[in-house]
């Protein structure tokens, strides 16, 4: 009886999977584009388009602010021109690792082999096992690097305001900027201390501060560090009150941290609900497998089961993406 029904199940599962894939892509595109569409609509209601708002805001800037904005724009344009290999190298630098591409690709290859072996042990077909290997080899190392450099940037930003305070107090008390950088590298924990130690050591071997800051931006491309690097370079070229400028940046950093902590507290309930809803199907499937493994074996041992699981995972991914964007929109509002 199962043999007679299996072609119908396979066709139904294939149709469900195709529908799931199209639905997931559509939901993902709409969810990713919605914040930008909302911003453009608000600007249009105020009579300001993206180009108009940029031109009008630029006209209100003084020459020093225009110079800072031009350098920030040049850094963004340089980042967009990076190729795929350069992006991997940059991500490894940002994660605090040595940019060894050979090690990255070897680790990706072995991760794919492990995924294929696990899929084969569970009785998956060759196309499914191959897809799992490709998916794992491509996405898992990128996710791991992303996790490392985001954690490192978060630690850097948390201590960066304290580093700015050291420079502000040192400059106002008459210390040179180089001496302030040495104090930061010696007293503050990594990764802030490590970054400033590299600035000091680079100056000792004859590199200019501009070159060292450019290299530092490759390792730590946060907005705060970009602004600090540009302000420091412009202050060396044209002069100006460095302490007041950095004091404003320090105040902005502390206000942003306070606002972020408040947003995390407000969104914690929604994140917990999303985690419970997302993990519930896996717990249910595991419980049923423990109680009646033969009942669930159809999902793992037949093509129809494989297509069904693929469609279910696609719909779950779409739902998690929607919940993630809903939480982000609530936090941003």
Helix content: over 70%
**How many individual helices?**
13
Poorly predicted ranges: 1-5, 48-54
Q: Which whole number gives the mean pLDDT?
A: 77
Order of helices and strands: HHHHHHHHHHHHH
State which percent range the strand residues make up.
under 5%
Gyration radius (Cα, Å) is 26 Å
Largest sheet: none
Structural class: mainly alpha
Number of strands: 0
Report the principal-axis shape: elongated
Structural domain count: 2
Q: Alpha-carbon distance between the termini?
A: 56 Å
How would you describe the overall organization of this protein?
The radius of gyration is 26 Å and the shape is elongated. The termini are far apart. The protein has helices at about 1-45, 50-60, 65-80, 85-95, 100-120, 125-170, 175-185, 190-205, 210-220, 225-240, 240-290, 295-300, 305-330. It is about 85% helix and about 0% strand. It has about 325 residues and is an all-alpha fold. It folds into 2 domains: about 65-260, no CATH class; about 270-325, no CATH class. The chain contains 13 helices and no strands.
